[in-house]
Amino acid sequence: MEEKKAKKNNDKKLKKKTESMVSLTIDGLPVTIEKGTTILQAAKEIGIEIPTLCYHPAIEPYQACRVCLVEVIKGGKSSLVASCGYLAEEGIEVKTDSETVNEVRMVVIQLLLAQAPNSEKVKVIAEKYNVEPIFVPRKEEKECILCGLCTRVCNEIMGIGVIGFAHRGANREIVTPYKELSELCST
């Protein structure tokens, strides 16, 4: 009697787990993962590397840098999405290395090189993907790509919120309120 009860409980657990799973294909490889998992996380689980700059597992995805773009084919239609924030869905096909993805990723990296030619992280990704800078860098050479990672860590993890974005377009920068130093943060 107890064996039947244990088997029934195990069957319920298995059914519940199956209902909370989704199956998709990434670069031709079938993947079954928990609902709520991003494409980036799913790819990582099966050993496929997708480049990122603004992603950090401890904070919510921001999808700002666009380096992690992948192609999602759903219902016969293809679209480019940021893999760090796009949740895996049942039956979708994901391409991380298609011609379209590589072309767009190259342009994104070129723009980042123009924005922040001194950024070591951008240089490493550019070298890995054989991207040469074609745009003229801004007059003042910066390291910041304005991905917002530091502002999100300050807000979400530290709970301080002493830095944020100011201005728009080419004048956008990360600053403290009124550009005054904060007692809470020395950066």
How would you briefly describe this protein structure?
The chain is an alpha+beta fold and 187 residues long.
Name its key features.
single chain, 187 residues, alpha+beta, Ubiquitin-like (UB roll), 2 domains, five-stranded mixed beta sheet, 7 strands, globular
Describe, in plain words, how this protein is organized in 3D.
This protein is α+β, with helices and mostly antiparallel strands and 187 residues long. It has 2 domains: 126 residues, Roll (Ubiquitin-like (UB roll)), CATH 3.10.20.740; 40 residues, no CATH class. It has 5 helices and 7 strands. Strands 2-1-5-3-4 form a 5-stranded mixed sheet, sandwiched between helices. It is globular.
- Quick one: biggest sheet? 5 strands, mixed
Q: How helical, in percent, are the residues?
A: 25-40%
The helix/strand order is: HEEHEEEHHHEE
* Average of the residue pLDDT scores: 87
- Strand ordering within the main sheet: 2-1-5-3-4
The helix tally amounts to: 5
Terminal Cα separation, in Å? Answer: 65 Å
* Outline type: globular
What structural category arises from helix and sheet content? alpha+beta
Tell me the number of strands: 7
Q: How many structural domains does the protein architecture include?
A: 2
Broad CATH class of the largest domain: Alpha Beta
CATH architecture of the largest domain: Roll
Beta-strand residue fraction: 15-25%
Alpha carbon gyration radius: 21 Å
Write the layout of secondary structure elements.
Elements (H helix, E strand, L loop, with lengths): L1 H18 L1 E6 L2 E6 L4 H7 L23 E6 L2 E6 L10 E3 L3 H17 L4 H9 L20 H9 L6 E3 L6 E3 L12
Parallel strand pairs: 1-5
Antiparallel strand pairs: 1-2, 3-4, 3-5, 6-7
